[in-house]
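User: I want to check something. If I give you two sequences, will you return the structure for each one separately, not as a complex?

Assistant: Yes, each is folded on its own. Here is the first sequence with its structure:
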Amino acid sequence: MKKLSLLLLCSALVATTFTFESCVKKGNDAPIDNTGFDPNLKVTHTIAQLLAMPTGVAITQDVVVSGVVVMDDRSGNYYKKFVIQDATGGLEINLDQNNIYNDYPVGRKVYIKCKGLSMATYGGMVQLGYGLDERQSIVSIPFVMADNFIVKANYPNTIKVDTFTYDELANANANGTRLNTLVAIRDVEFANGAYGMPFAAPNATTNRALNGCGAASSGIVVRSSNYARFQPTLTPTGKGVIVGLYTKYNATPQLIIRDVNDLNFVAERCDGSIPVAPVFITIDSLRNKYAGSPLSLSGIKITGTVISDRANGNGNGQNLIIQQGNKGIMIRFTSAHSFNLGDSVVVITNGTSLEEFRGTLQVNNTQLSTASRVGTGTITPTILTLLDLNNNFEAHESTLVKILNATVAGSGSFGGNQTLSDGTATITLYTATGASFSGTATPTTAKNFSGIAGQYDATKQLQMRNITDVE
């Protein structure tokens, strides 16, 4: 009897084991395809109705919205968030998850169960997330809790894209219902200084200005992340139609593209011209183009190492001086720049002017978006006597030079105009009052002085970068 019971038990265990193994998914089994499944949750609110609810507090009602994903993170131009859209508007969902597109790709319908979530605004845009931090900024939905709030439905779905003129979308504050929706804008071109440029600088999210053909308005920008896979792709030089997510930052209207397939451009610009893609020339060649009167530049890019030092304040914050080999030039930006001493930069000159200002040659009216940092470099100063420098000043303008065994005469501190002498000649040693070393006492004995050669009207001058230029 005991033998029979043992035999039956063993048989049952074998059968159980066989049954269990036969239900385990093998590595080569195809995943269950549920892309056509829609759970048909009851939708209680439209996206517009949800957006009308208070921000900054937890949602306590059983609110359910539904929409189709119109923006995901596949191209890297969005990070840890995605956007859904219904017939009434769009909504950004912040989710602490990488590769969101694997679960919520563009075209998937989703339901959002909003109870327990919160909304906040950033730059005038509403975001949905798990709560708010101490700064009242949105907190992303934790990845492990995603299924509690986000319910997948069928995929793919057709996304309706409305087409507008530039003027119709130029005022972001007047287009609140369009925010976070996919739009198309016809008859547009990237502005001077923005076409033929990488969509984003290598080290920063970048805005590229967009113009409308014949438009009365301006101000729309295409905003792209430096982590986007299309970051180095050059913006089109012609005109056409652009599709993107319509957003804003405060009052600035922004378009965010999914990838470069969102652009359909032809070669001609709005005025019928066909620009030439910018090509590198040397700084020496650029300087040689100047013939005494302002020259409009286009189709040219230059590269060099930054020799000016904005951190120590001995110069205008909009001025950047770069050197390549033994030639240098001043870049005059339309606003303060953030490039540092030793940065290697590339500047595309579209829309700029080569001209003199108070005696110094510069590339004027340069947009920040046309310059990018590409690495670091080192420039060794050229050792000269002051006689050599004064006799060949144009050749050394905007370059780093070193004067040996020189003395300073003047007020006793570096601030303002002092006189530098090396026994062969003299030159003005200029230090701005806002420089970090302006109040530092000048040496009482001969020293070596490095600095940038420049002009102010008829005055030739040497401008130190920082106090280490004295040795």
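And separately, the second sequence with its own structure:
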Amino acid sequence: MSDTKSSSMSGDDKRKIAADCWRRGNEAIAKENWDYGIQMYFTAVKLIPDNLMYRQSLRFTEYKKYNNNGTGATMASMRSMGSKGSVKKSRMTKNWQAVDVAAEEGLQVNPWDVGFNGDVGDAAKAQGFPEVAIFAYEEALKKEPTNKEINMSLAEVLEERGEYKRASDCWRRILKLEPTNGTARSKITSLDAKGVMDRGGYEGAEGTRGVMAPHEVARRMGTDGKAGGPGSSPIADMERAVRKDPTNRDQLMKLADLYRREGRLEDAEQQLLKSLELSGGNINVREVLEDVQLDLMRKAVTVAQEQFRADTADESKKQRAVAMSTELLNREVEVIAARVERYPQDMRMKFELATRLMKQQKWATAIPLLQQSRSDPRVKGEALVNLGKCFQYDNKEQLARRQFEAAIPEITHEAHPELFKDLFYFLGRLCEKSGDKPAAEEYYQKVLEVDYAYRDAVTRLNSLQGGESAG
């Protein structure tokens, strides 16, 4: 697919084609057709360059193609000269999209090339794709962990996302290389302090008297799995098992699960990346990895929001919090949409996708998903209420009212207090607008019976009873 043709497509069309290419790539690698798999994944990457899953699929398939030899194709350096020239030229004009594509073409010749991985990281960072940038930088550091520039770039992205421990680790590697580096020493001190206050031990507590997270308590007591004999802790035992057999995928998965339960998401992610690479892109491993990466994004969003709340006058913090929230939502849509396609009979998954699409105000896309998911008794009431909202926002008010009324037997205040109030308030608004005053009064009264201060329900009820419309 030419770049000119793809640039003229809508975002939804690009996502649809990219998802299809990714699926074709998965089918290809299942048959060990590495070249076609790489072609399909690369097309997906070019269409949706901020999708981490597509990047990881592409890179790990490139590793498989070259049998994990660490050097890529024969005479890789000579064969990638053209890509290096393209990267250099595009960097001069700060055409980061072109840098990205050229570097990825170079990585198809040698996926372990530190320079090209760094170029992908820089391009992703400049374009606002932090998850991709982190992945590219970390892949480069696997080959050359002492690269100062890449460690600095990675540390910057990680710090911006509130991942202070990982950022500090980058600066520690730099300090080990340059023991007199004052900047590195200062950054380590600052990041360690931020890590304790914002993430490491207090997790939402208002001050140092708050409750520490379990993994921070364990770290301070020296019982975090890094010491002690067999049986001292499940994490310590599994870490020993992994050190003994680092290619055992099941043990890596078990260790990742233990880390995740303790809130050590970064450590869990690293084990899952190893397992994914060993498995050749196994879809079950990939889904667990996606869930952990989404958890990491949620934590980063929380940190950004807390930083803005602490300094509401800082417009840049506000913009960063909004941008990260949008990035998280987009990523959730991509991940869940892929699973809906993979598991078409999972109605709850369709419901989850619909709720995200509603946040993007894509009512027409959410409606058929909600219509299908209401067949699941677990989400029937919520699906009907959300379906009513979608019809209402899409200016189909009669359809909206029918959905809301169908939801009444499914929603109780005890089980769904907020949804209960939403349901009867929206019904009241619809009935008021259509001139059905008795029904509107009844529905507003239902709301006020449980929450007298809910929105403007009191004002609207008073207006109806007084013979005036509240508008």
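Because they were folded independently, the notes below concern the second chain alone. Residues 411-471 form one domain. The CA atoms of residues 87 and 99 lie 5 Å apart.
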